[in-house]
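@channel anyone free to eyeball this complex?
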Amino acid sequence: MNIQDALKVLGLETKELNFGVSTGNESVLGSGPVIASHSPVDGNLISRCGSANRQDFDFVVAKSREAFAVWRSWPAPARGEVVRAFGNALREKKAALGALVSFEMGKSYQEGLGEVQEMIDICDFAVGLSRQLYGLTIHSERPNHRMFEQWHPLGPVGIITAFNFPVAVWAWNTALAWVCGDTTLWKPSEKVPLCGVACQKIAAEVFKQHHVPEGVSCLIQGDREVGEWIAQNPAIALVSATGSTRMGRQVGQVVAGRLGRSLLELGGNNALIVSEEADLDLAIRAVVFGAVGTAGQRCTSTRRVIIQNKVYDQFVERLQKAYGSIRIGDPLDENNHMGPLIDTQAVDMYLKAIESVKQEGGKALIAGGKLEGEKYASGCYVKPCVMEAKPEYQTVQNETFAPILYLLRYENIQEAIDIQNAVPQGLSSAIFTQNLLESETFLSASGSDCGIANVNLGTSGAEIGGAFGGEKETGGGRESGSDAWKAYMRRQTNTINYGRSIPLAQGIQFDL
Ligand code: NAD
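replying in thread with the prediction:
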C-alpha cells in the first residue's frame, strides 16, 4: 500500500496540522510547539502535529481522572467488549496503519504489519483477560473468618513510548489498562507523532460507538518535557515508560520521589551464544534477522554474538555470505530487507560507535558506512556492520541503536554465559545448541540474567502471550502477557468475620 492511500484510509491530513491533544471525541491542536514529522525514507515532511502546553496537560489529566471515576465501575467484561471492537477496527485498518508505521519510522512494511498484528493480538488477549482478573482465597487462621484478595482498577496510566515501536507498545499498555478499568494518557515519541494521531483516531471512533466516557483514552503529544510532567504528576497512578536507560533513570527517580508506581522498559544489549553444537543454519538466520531487522533499532536486536572457538571461522564465513544478500532501501518496497535509521543523528551515533570500537582495538569484518546517492537522499541509510571485538570494550558494553554486530569468542559454556551477563543491561538473550546440558545450564539460576532467554531462537520477536521486559538497566518492568496485568491494578486483601466473637490474629489476647 502506498503512503498516500494509507493516510486516506486513516483519515489523516498531510498538508494541514493534525491534533496534538485529545481526550477522545474532543481533539485540539494544543498550545505547545508544532512538531514536524519527516520520513526517514525520503526525508520529506509527512505532516505537522500540535502538542500540549502545561495548561493542555493539566486539562487532560483532569479529564482522565473524571473518566476513571466512571470507567472503573463498568464490569470488566463490558470493558473487554470495547477492546474487542478496538481490535476489530485495527484488523480493518491493518494495512494502512502498517504502511504509516513503515513510512514514518522506517521499518519494513512487513515489520509495520507485524507491529499492528501485535496490537490485534494483545486486544484478543485482553478480551479473555477481562473475564479472568482473578484474586485468591486464603484460609484464615481465625475461626469463622473468610479471607480473600481482589484486584481493583488503579487510576490514570501515563504511557511514554519510544520511536521504534510507534504503535504496538501503546497497545500493549492500553489493551490491558482498559480492561483493568484504568484510563490512559499517551505521549508518543516526538519522532513519530502521526502514528499517535492515527491510533487515537481509531480508538476514539470505537469508543464513541460504545459510549465510553470521554477521557478514557487521551493523547498528549510533545517532547520530553511532556514526559517529565507525566512523571511528576501524583494523579497519574502508574507511569509506563519505554525508551533509553537514560530516560528511564530520570523517570524512575521522579516517580519514586512521589512514591508512585513505574513500569520501565528500557535499553537492551542482547547476546546470542553459538555453541560448537549449534545448528549453524538456524543460528545464522536468527543472527541476521536479529541484527539487521528494523535496522538494528529493536530493543531486542542482537548486538553481540558469542561464538565457540571451534566454529568461529565457519560462522564468520557463513555470516559474510548471508550479509552479502541483504537489500537496503525503501522499506515500503517489500523486496528490501532493511530500511533507514530514524534520523541523521542516529546515523552519526552509528558511525561514532564503529570508530570507537576501532580505537579500542576492534576490527570490521563486514564494513559498515553510510549509503550515498539519490536513492538514499534522506541521509538515514547505512550498511549493516559486523565487527570483531572484546567483551570489555566500552562501546560493546553500551547499546548503540543501529545495525552493528559484535563478534566475541569463548572456550567453555560458563565463560560464554559470563560474557553474556557482563553488561549493564538485561533484556533478551539466546543460545543455539543441540546439547541439553548446555541449554539447561543457560536457563538455570546461574545462567542468563535476562528477562528473556531463548533456546534455538533469536533474541528478537517476542510473543504477546509471555511477560515482556528485562532486568538490571533494562528497568525490571513487565508488559504484555502472563500476569503483567497486575501492574495495572491495585490489590486489596479482605477479611470477613462471620462469627460472634472477634478473635485477634497471632493469638493475641486483649481483655476489656
Ligand atoms: P528515548 O529515551 O530518547 O525516548 C523515549 C521516550 O521518552 C520519548 O517519548 C521521549 O520524548 C521521552 N523522554 C525522553 N526523556 C525523558 C525524560 N527525561 N522524562 C520523560 N520522558 C522522556 O528513546 P528512543 O530513542 O525513542 O527509543 C530507543 C530506546 O528505547 C532504546 O534504548 C531501546 O532499547 C528502548 N526501547 C526499549 C523497549 C523495551 O521494551 N525494553 C522497547 C522499545 C524501545
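from a first look: The longest helix spans residues 76-105.
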